[in-house]
Amino acid sequence: MSDDSAAQKLRLHIEAAERLIEERKGLNEDLKERFALAKAEGFDPAIMKEMIKRRAMDRQKLAEREALIETYSVQLGLEF
Question: What positions does the domain GapR-like DNA-binding occupy (predicted)?
Answer without folding.
Answer: 6-77
